[in-house]
Specification:
The protein has 82 residues and is α+β, with helices and mostly antiparallel strands. It has one domain. Helices cover 32% and strands 10% of the residues. The chain has a two-stranded antiparallel sheet. 6% of the residues are buried.
Length: 82
């Protein structure tokens, strides 16, 4: 099963799921070893937003990317299937 299929099955079963695909990023693109990697900060922020939305975290995202790291934009840098 693909990860997209897993996401679709979760939704069909009534679970909360959001699925995002970074454009132009290879496998492991969320790896935090490179502190200039915008996909790393993007993935952390999306996780925080999801957890706040569902009451698991109580504060908004505190993820701060270093100055000069690109802020990714929906439909330009990533696709969302939510």
């Amino acid at each position: 099963m693909s990860i997209r299929g897993f996401h679709d099955d979760l939704k069909k079963a009534g679970n909360q799921s959001e699925f995002y695909v970074g454009k132009g990023a290879g496998h492991g693109f969320c790896n935090g070893r490179n502190d200039r990697n915008p996909f790393f900060y993007w993935s952390l922020e999306l996780e925080d937003i999801f957890l706040v939305k569902h009451g698991i975290l109580t504060e908004n995202s505190l993820v701060l990317a270093p100055e000069g790291v690109k802020v990714l934009k929906r439909d330009v840098d990533y696709l969302a299937y939510d």
